[in-house]
Amino acid sequence: MRPRACHAPQRLRTAAFAAVCALLPMAPALAQEPAVQQAQGRAVYRKWCAPCHDPGVTHPGTHALTVKYQGVKSGVLLEWTDLPAAMVKVLVRHGISVMPQFRKTEISDADLDALAAFLSRNTR
Ligand code: HEC
Q: How far is the CA of 53 from the centre of ligand 1 (A)?
């Protein structure tokens, strides 16, 4: 049996190491800072969700959730502590009851990621 060529893996490792070194300075730009993402998420919320979900029963989402949860938890979405990011994404893309679904041309995937991170910020 011929011994396996052991140079290729070594070369690969060297190339991978070089690639990682080259990308390191870009890391902060690639991984979005939590604070930046929160700000983006808040902006998306203000534009698309606040009209229905801001505090006050004149907002239809807040009204509906106040009735739905009967004081078990707040009707105000921003006060929830049990709203996983994945749940936000499903509800936004599919809608629920009279809440409409939102298209990717309205809320992009990146905006939805930020929105979900913002709304789940108090959820452990
Ligand atoms: C046109 C009004 C309207 C808009 C805009 C709206 N919602 Fe809603 N939303 C509602 C209503 C009404 C309900 C309650 C539905 C029900 O009865 O279960 C609701 C429920 C929810 C719930 C809770 C679901 C549950 O029953 O526990 C979440 C989470 C939610 N909305 C997130 C969002 C997000 C995020 C946005 C912005 C992208 C948004 N909504 C925009 C009206 C709206």
A: 7
